[in-house]
Amino acid sequence: MSIYKYNGAFSIVFVIALFGLSGSLSADYSKHPKAISLMDKMVLEHNYDRTQLERILTTASREDRILKSMKNSAEKVKPWSKYRPLFVTETRVKSGAQFLIKYRTVLNRAEQKYGVPPEVITAIIGVETNYGGYTGKANVLNSLSTLAFEHPRRSRFFTSELENYLLLVRERNWQADKPLGSYAGAMGLGQFMPSNYRRLAVDFNNDGVADLFDPVDAIGSVANYFKHHGWVKGQPVAALAVVKGEFDKTIANNNFKPSRTIAELEKLGYQSTVNYDPSAKATVVRFNGVDGDEYWIGLKNFYVISRYNPTRKYAMAVYHVSQEINRILEKG
Question: Residues near 184 by Cβ (< 8 Å), separated by ≥ 6?
Answer without folding.
Answer: 69, 70, 143, 147, 193
